[in-house]
Each structure stands twice: as C-alpha cells, then as structure tokens.
Design brief:
The chain is an alpha+beta fold. It contains four helices and eight strands, in the order ααβββββββαβα. The strands form two sheets. It has a five-stranded antiparallel sheet, with helices on both faces. It has a three-stranded antiparallel sheet with strand order 4-5-8. Bound molecules: zinc ion.
Length: about 180
C-alpha cells in the first residue's frame, strides 16, 4: 500500500465532478489498489474520510473510518466503509450545525449545517449494491465526502464565515462553546 499525496484547496481536481465507475473498472487492479491506498492515506493523515479527488483521482470513490482519531477526538467509532458511485437518495429536512475540517483544507474548522439523517445508495468494493441509513456523525461525514465527488468543499457551505478558525484557535476558543 502507498500513502498518496493529498490535493489541497485551489487544486482544480477538487472542483470537478468525479467520474462514475463501471463494474469492469471496479474489479480492476488499479481501482482496487487505489481503494487500499485511499484507506492507508486516510489513516496516515488521521482523517475520518477521504474522497478520490482528494488524491488526484477524479473518480466516485469515498472511504470513511473513525477509530480514536486525533484530528477528531470527539468522533464516535465507525468501522471502515468503502463506497463507489454513492448517491444520497434521502435527506432529512432537519439539519444541525456542526464543526467540520478537511484534509484538503489543512488546519481549518468551520460550522456547516447538515441533514441529521440521510440514506445513501452505492456499490461496495466487490461490486455489490449497498444502502446505508445514517444519522449523526456518520451522516455528516457521508455528506462531506459525497460533496467532494461533486466538486463541493465544506468551506462552500459554512453558514457564517466568522466561525472559520484554525484548529488551535478552535480548540482554544470554540470547542466547549455552543455554536
Ligand atoms: Zn474533505
């Protein structure tokens, strides 16, 4: 497995709509290795999710995992999820504000409103259809990662730019405050 270079804010690859994968492509060694490398990269940089455009591959693949992340110490445990061609087929009307960051944006945090529960239809790495009903933290991470596949970054959705903070300042001034 290889640790891949992460594309940072300003790189046009982050603003493109990622390509859908065919069944053939999903089976290919290239895509199977890409998924392994994305997982290794997410773990190396202590993210809780990563989308293929963030590693310079404009493809509809996301990986999510959370297990005692240092970057997101408040995050609950989420076992590894790998999704291909994911589509959000249901969004709850109810939304909640939460702090988000992104490996492509460095040490920034900002408050983003997200639906509190969603349904995602996708394909797993073996080519099988899967559906996930998600709420809370997982719903937020899924919305954040699927946005990446459509060229959208969380900073686009920050409700009030006055919340945009460096990680250190977030920890010092905001972490215990109600948004
Ligand atoms: Zn991100």
């Amino acid at each position: 497995m290889s640790i891949l270079k992460v594309a940072r804010l300003g790189n046009p690859v982050l603003r493109q709509k990622a390509l859908l994968l065919t069944a053939e492509e999903i089976k290919s060694l290239f895509v199977q290795k890409l998924m392994d490398d994305m997982v290794a990269t997410m773990r190396e940089y202590e993210g809780v999710g990563l989308a293929a455009p963030q590693v310079h591959e404009s493809k509809q693949i996301i990986v999510i995992e959370s297990a005692g992340s240092v970057r997101y110490s408040e995050a609950p445990n989420i076992p590894l999820i790998v999704l291909i061609n994911p589509v959000i087929s249901y969004y709850s009307e109810e939304k909640a504000d939460g702090w988000e960051g992104c490996l492509s944006v460095g040490d920034f945090r900002g408050v983003v409103p997200r639906s509190t529960s969603i349904k995602v239809d996708a394909i797993d790495r073996n080519g099988k259809k899967v559906s996930i009903d998600a709420n809370g933290f997982l719903a937020v991470v899924l919305q954040h990662e699927i946005d990446h596949l459509n060229g959208v970054i969380f900073v686009d959705k920050i409700k009030d730019l006055k919340t945009l903070s460096f990680l250190k300042e977030y920890e010092r001034y905001w972490i215990d405050r109600k948004i």
